[in-house]
Automatic annotation (TrEMBL):
UniProt source species: Wenjunlia vitaminophila
UniProt protein name: Methyltransferase domain-containing protein
PANTHER family: TRANS-ACONITATE 2-METHYLTRANSFERASE, TRANS-ACONITATE 2-METHYLTRANSFERASE-RELATED
Domain Methyltransferase: 171-269
Keyword RNA-binding: no
Keywords annotated in UniProt: Methyltransferase, Transferase
The keyword Repressor appears for this protein: no
Alphabetical list of InterPro entries matching this protein: Methyltransf_25, SAM-dependent_MTases_sf, WH-like_DNA-bd_sf
């Protein structure tokens, strides 16, 4: 049988490419299955094994033929197991999607299928001069969640910077999103400070998180757009954070931004900026393209572009740190 399949494949003019496409299409099918299964609630329900009928009734599914095929597909992909009609989770990815970090992984799937999918569907029109995509508001929550994939590595970087800033540093987090990096700063027990975000939803989320994390008495958050100055900030600060948001600023807005940030950093203090930077990996270039195609976002920069801009704003020392191997996720410390 295999011999016949291989013979058929190698009978094609681009035999190897055919085989590669077949393999790639399985990856796409797996991603589609997991995305749909997470949204349907199938994965969450199958944390306890269940038969098809009971599962369908819990999830309000009425098309049993199609649902049966969907479950069989999950089994065929190795994401589900079928023990004589009782389904359970089997694959690592399926289990992780309903595990402790599942919300981040589900957001990563949503971001790729929905947001990136839209960019690629509309790319030809955009490249020929059509308007850039108005994706930002619809995808803000998903992107905020999916960017937490890098949280462990960035958090430990932030904790190191804030720990090195003395026993009682004051910290400002600009574009704080959910406030996760204020939590990292709070690992220095003497640290206090503030987050600023222009989105009311982020301010609300950070306020709630700071309370939930038990650090609401040391950190607070205010709404504000840093492009309009820093009137909300109660500076100067020992550490100013700009995490995963430099690509929201147009190149021509960056000099004014860096001057504002310089005015907020105490003499001897540090601006810490973390971002994916322009790179050559598929991950970096995909993000670069997606951002460049989104209204209100800009292509990724290189550290070589930013360093002179930071110096021009008055930062004398600029250090670049690579945060993960083989990817252009970098930290810049400017003082
Ligand atoms: C991708 S999220 C990153 C959030 C957080 N720093 C993190 O790394 O998890 C970018 C955040 O920056 C905020 N932001 C973008 N431009 C801003 C500006 N000009 N002033 C204040 N906040 C801004 C957005 O509202 C959003 O919450």
């Amino acid at each position: 049988m295999w011999r016949r399949t291989l013979k058929a494949a190698f009978g094609q003019p681009d035999a190897t490419a055919h085989l590669l496409f077949l393999r790639d299409s399985q990856t796409v099918t797996r991603i589609h299955f997991l995305h749909a299964a997470a949204h349907l609630g199938v994965l969450a329900e199958l944390k306890s094994p269940s038969g098809q009928e009971a599962l369908a009734s819990k999830l309000g599914i009425t098309r049993s033929q199609q649902f049966g095929l969907f479950l069989k597909l999950g089994v065929s992909l190795g994401e589900l197991a079928d023990d004589a009609g009782t389904y359970r989770l089997k694959g690592r990815r399926a289990k992780a999607l309903v595990g402790p970090n599942g919300n981040v992984l589900r957001a990563l799937l949503d971001e790729q299928i929905e947001y990136h999918g839209s960019v690629y569907r509309e790319l030809a029109e955009q490249l020929r001069g059509g308007p850039l995509g108005d994706y930002l508001s619809a995808t803000a929550a998903v992107v905020a969640e999916s960017s937490r994939i890098a949280e462990p590595v960035i958090s430990s970087y932030v904790t190191d910077v804030v720990t090195g800033a003395g026993p009682t540093p004051r910290v400002l987090d600009i574009g704080c999103g959910s406030g996760v990096y204020l939590r990292a700063a709070s690992q220095n027990a003497g640290a206090t400070g503030q987050g600023i975000d222009m989105q009311p939803a982020s301010v609300e989320l950070t306020t709630k998180n700071l309370t939930d994390w038990g650090i609401g008495d040391r950190f607070h958050v205010t709404q504000g757009d840093i492009r309009k100055g820093a009137s909300e900030a109660d500076g100067p600060y020992d550490v100013v954070l700009l995490m995963n948001n430099i690509y929201y600023f147009a190149p021509e807005q960056r000099p004014a931004l860096f001057e504002t940030l310089r005015s907020l950093v105490k003499e001897g203090g540090t601006l810490t900026l973390v971002s994916m930077f322009h790179g050559t990996s598929p991950t970096a270039l995909n993000l670069d393209l997606v951002l460049a195609c989104t209204q209100g976002c800009y292509a990724l920069v290189s550290p070589e572009e930013l360093a002179p801009e930071l110096r021009a704003a008055g930062f004398r020392n600029v250090t670049v740190d690579r945060l993960v191997a083989r990817e252009s996720l970098l930290g810049i410390r400017a003082s």
